[in-house]
Design goal:
Layout: H1 4-21, H2 23-26, E1 31-32, H3 37-55, E2 62-63, E3 70-71, H4 101-125, H5 130-142, H6 153-159, H7 162-174, H8 178-197, H9 201-219, H10 234-252, H11 254-264, E4 267-271, E5 274-277, E6 290-291, E7 309-310, H12 320-332, H13 339-353, H14 359-367, H15 381-399, H16 408-430, H17 438-458, H18 464-480, E8 486-487, H19 488-493, H20 498-503, H21 506-513, E9 520-523, H22 531-535, E10 546-548, H23 549-554, E11 563-569, E12 579-580, E13 584-588, E14 596-599, E15 601-604, H24 608-615, E16 625-628, E17 646-653, E18 656-663, E19 667-674, E20 679-683, E21 686-688, E22 691-693, E23 697-702, E24 705-713, H25 716-744
Parallel strand pairs: 9-11, 15-16
Antiparallel strand pairs: 1-8, 2-3, 4-5, 4-10, 6-7, 11-13, 12-13, 14-19, 17-18, 18-24, 19-23, 20-21, 20-24, 22-23
Helix pairs in contact: 1-4, 1-5, 4-5, 4-6, 4-7, 5-15, 5-18, 7-8, 7-9, 8-9, 8-10, 8-25, 9-10, 10-25, 11-25, 12-15, 13-15, 16-17, 17-18
Length: 745
């Protein structure tokens, strides 16, 4: 039985190692993860909006600041319901009203620590040593896929759960009795559910593949154990585990999955420069992100990211010595139950990551449901890195325990490789050849270092000093090729610091927020900063990979979207700006439509595309007539003089809106707000229908006279999903307590 003190000591080692590894962003303010466009204008701006909403006492279901208002939880990568983000809301926002970058960095490092700790626990579950588990944890969390994705925290926060998922899956396979099997399988599903809630759908799909393939592998094992003599065994046990884990994962992630499934039928995604319905299978021609065949060599020789694959390729680099350890693990520990599986998983993941160049990629595209959602094939190196990190732990166990006599053949091979590496370093200098890339040169040096370490260990030096030396070599290797943090001064000098650009909008944002009334702003600039989520300025644009289909067609109608101001770079030649600073100019459109108005006539057009054409046709005045897809359930009154009619907006929040209306007759109140399922309305306390008007806006029928209109965003799918998620977490966590109470009595 492992003592709690040993766990605490190991956790302390991993925590110290993680903090020191990321010293640039934790211990200084000279480096930052927040200089690139996506990191600043997606993740960081979304976090700022999310934290601000939580601190104001409202869960951010609807985002009124981007895309003229849209469902914030529709896109999974926002991680709207990930519980581990809640501690961020305990800290005050900075002077710009944004999440403090230091807090963002701390979250990033904490996630890496969790990933290393989960991997440590898995390796200990595989009955390997503490030192082997620490090596595996470092390699998994700080190298490979997870160590090279600073722009996408949702992928990191989803990816860290796989070791814990695998640990619980293994316990379910070994558990005596059906009750414990079901409980561990449910807990495994909760781990997958947390991965879903973190927003990395790609990662959750890959983790589900790992669960299914591991269960199939387990069913084929030949060495029967106590579990096989139970009531459920073999294929039935594996099917039970996969089924229970799948149901638990769906229920745990339901609060995110259900609104995302609804949103996918309302939205289109942008792939390959084209927009396709988000619920449709992505055409194979657009699945072009892949690892090049020679990119697999990046496991051994680190090269720049752009040279190893197409699209958003992620480096699989785990370090030279860890790769050697993984090879030793396969060689020496093949008879261990999970080594063949991990080896096969790594090979299959690399084969799939080649994308259209791989037969496996095409076959799984056709045969595996929804795998096309993980459209970047190169991201499957995540599974390969997970497998290699675990195999490296087996390699550590073999290398530090096998006698010297067993290593002679491998020693000769490594000596030859080390000599070849030294020749590769020396010859270009002797013959005045072109200088090697500094990264390739360093990789060659690390090959020599790995050989020397190997010789030192097999010579019988396996004590504490050698283990510290091994950890130092691995950390030096991974740190040398860690490009997650950028030097802020260098990026600013190049004009490439997107955080500077976003913060440079703060004065312009304050000017806009000082203007009276409700209106929207268009940011007319390439690579537009996300001033909506960052500074609470309502805009027509945003930063994401999807957009509501109707809005994508409608967003050119600036008049109907109540666009009163346009922001342009200070270099714009247009005259007549109402605001100017060193970076931006602001122009006003005094003819912009109000946020709400009344009409007394409608035209029916069922075809959405024809409706937009008629909306632009001469003679159509949206101030007087509304285009609808179906006839209203009540007639409107004609009014000779609408001058006395008034609409006043009172309360306006992210998920609520209240208006006072004075109508000369029954009318249709048109709101310059995006129509979306889940918005409900009342008129004078009575439930009223919300109609889609002019192809994308909301409309509500109001009676003659004075009325009070109230709108609330109450999406049924989110509430149903929340009930499912809370229930499954409560049942799984409460079951052991209930069992302890019953047994205790």
């Amino acid at each position: 039985m492992r003592s709690p003190r040993s766990n605490v000591a190991a956790a302390g080692v991993l925590l110290v190692v993680t903090v020191l590894f990321y010293w640039k962003i934790l211990l200084t303010n000279q480096f930052s993860l927040l200089t690139g466009y996506e990191a600043v204008n997606q993740a960081y701006s979304w976090f700022s909006f999310w934290v601000r909403s939580i601190q104001q006492g409202a869960w951010p279901l609807w985002d009124p600041y981007t895309y003229s208002g849209h469902i914030f939880s529709g896109e999974m990568q926002n991680g709207s319901f990930y519980p581990l983000y809640l501690p961020l809301a305990l800290f005050r926002l900075n002077r710009y009203g944004l999440l403090a970058p230091a807090l963002y960095h701390a979250m990033f490092v904490a996630s890496h620590f969790l990933g290393a700790w989960f991997m440590f626990r898995l390796v200990r579950e595989l009955e390997l040593s503490d030192f082997a588990a620490i090596v595996a944890g470092i390699c998994f969390s700080m190298g490979g896929f997870l160590g090279h994705i600073p722009e996408w925290p949702h992928l990191l926060n989803s990816g860290i759960w796989l070791p814990l998922i695998f640990l619980l899956l293994r316990r379910a396979m070994k558990a005596p009795g059906v009750a414990r099997t079901v409980w561990y399988a449910s807990a495994c599903g909760l781990g997958l559910g947390l991965s879903i809630l973190a927003g990395g759908l790609h990662m959750a799909i890959m983790q589900a593949i790992a669960i299914v393939t591991a269960a199939v592998f387990y069913s084929f094992r030949t060495d029967a154990d106590a579990a096989d003599r139970g009531a459920v065994k073999g294929w039935r046990r594996s099917a039970l585990i996969v089924g229970v884990a799948g149901l638990a994962a769906f229920a745990a992630g339901a609060v995110q999955l259900l609104p995302s499934m609804e949103y996918s039928h309302q939205a289109m995604r942008f792939v390959g420069g084209a927009g396709v319905p988000a619920s449709d299978r992505i055409p194979y021609r657009y699945l072009t992100d892949r690892l090049y065949a020679h990119g697999i060599l990046n496991l051994l020789v680190a090269v720049p990211r752009g040279e190893i694959g197409s699209g958003e390729t992620v480096s699989p680099y785990l370090g030279v010595f860890p790769l050697l350890l993984a090879g030793i693990g396969v060689w020496k520990k093949w008879r261990c139950r999970w080594v063949p599986y991990l080896t096969g998983l790594a090979i299959a993941a690399f084969a799939y990551s080649l994308g259209p160049a791989s037969l496996l990629h095409g076959l799984l595209y056709v045969l595996t449901p929804y795998i096309w959602l993980a459209r970047e094939a190169d991201r499957f190196v995540y599974l390969a890195d997970f497998a290699l990190a675990a195999l490296a732990a087996y390699g550590v166990e073999a290398l530090f325990r096998a006698p010297n006599s067993e290593w002679a053949p491998l020693g000769k091979i490594l000596k030859c490789l080390a000599v070849a590496a030294m020749v590769g370093l020396v010859v270009p200098a002797l013959y005045a050849q072109a200088e090697l890339s500094p990264w390739i040169s360093l990789s060659l040096v690390l090959m020599v270092v790995s050989w020397l370490l190997f010789r030192h260990i097999v010579s019988g030096h396996t004590g504490t000093y050698t283990r510290v030396l091994v950890l130092a070599a691995i950390l030096f290797d991974l740190s040398a090729f860690d490009f997650s943090a950028a030097n802020r001064l260098e990026m600013s000098a190049k004009g490439a610091n997107q955080m500077d650009r976003l913060l440079g909008c703060s004065s312009a944002a304050q000017f806009l927020k000082s203007r009276a009334g409700l209106f929207r702003t268009e940011v007319a600039a390439d690579w537009a900063p996300n001033i909506g989520d960052a500074f609470q300025v309502e805009t027509t644009g945003g930063n994401g990979v999807t957009v509501v289909t109707e809005y994508g067609r409608f967003m050119g109608h600036k008049d109907l979207l109540s666009v009163r101001y346009t922001i342009k770079p200070a270099a714009a030649a247009d005259a007549g700006e109402v605001y100017r600073d060193a970076a931006w100019k602001i122009y006003e459109n005094p003819q912009a439509y109000p946020r709400a108005w009344l009409v007394h006539d409608t035209l029916v057009e069922r075809n959405p595309l024809e409706l937009l054409k008629r909306l632009d046709a001469p003679g159509i005045d949206p101030h007087r007539v509304a285009l609808v897809a179906a006839r209203l359930d009540t007639s409107l009154d004609a009014v000779a003089d609408a001058a006395s009619e008034k609409v006043r907006i009172g309360r306006y929040e992210s998920g609520a809106m209240e208006l006072s209306v004075q109508a000369g007759g029954r009318a249709l109140l048109v709101l310059s707000e995006l129509y979306y399922p889940g918005w409900t309305a009342t008129v004078n306390g009575q439930v009223a229908g919300v109609w889609k008007v002019d192809g994308a806006l909301r409309g509500i029928v109001v009676p003659r006279g004075d009325s009070q209109v109230s709108l609330r965003f109450r999406p049924a799918r989110i509430y149903i999903g929340a009930a499912l998620s809370v229930a499954v977490f409560g049942v799984v966590f409460g079951a052991p307590m209930w069992w302890w109470f019953v047994r205790g009595r």
